């Protein structure tokens, strides 16, 4: 399997881990990319979102949102095209 493909067992493990994640504000990013959607379009959208994070009043929240967006952009820049079944990206820091 390539790095974008996971087995059912791996997926169950990932979902179990994600259920543990929570954050005080809306600082966790869940991004669902349908098959055929160009990765460059999604990166452009995320960069646009990144540019408006300055409007977030709380510095801590703004910083966490920027981190999540930058992490997603970084990951997507390594992917040449959207896989045949689409792609899901989760990014951010959860509150311990």
How many domain units? 1
Pick out the low-confidence regions.
none
The largest beta-sheet arranges its strands as: 1-2
Query: What sequence of helices (H) and strands (E) makes up the elements?
Result: HEHHE
Q: In the CATH classification, which architecture applies? A: 2-Layer Sandwich
CATH class label: Alpha Beta
Radius of gyration, Cα only, in angstroms?
Answer: 14 Å
- Helix share bin: 40-55%
Class by SSE composition = mainly alpha
Largest sheet: 2 strands, antiparallel
Q: Please tell me the overall pLDDT.
A: 85
Q: What is the β-strand count?
A: 2
Question: Which term fits the overall shape?
Answer: flat
CATH homologous superfamily designation? eRF1 domain 1
| End-to-end Cα distance | 33 Å
What does this structure look like?
With 96 residues, the chain is mainly α. It has one domain: eRF1 domain 1 (Translation, Eukaryotic Peptide Chain Release Factor Subunit 1, Chain A, 2-Layer Sandwich), CATH 3.30.960. The chain has three helices and two strands; from the N terminus they run αβααβ. It has a two-stranded antiparallel ribbon. It starts with 7 loop residues before the first helix and ends in a 5-residue tail after the last strand. 9% of the residues are buried.
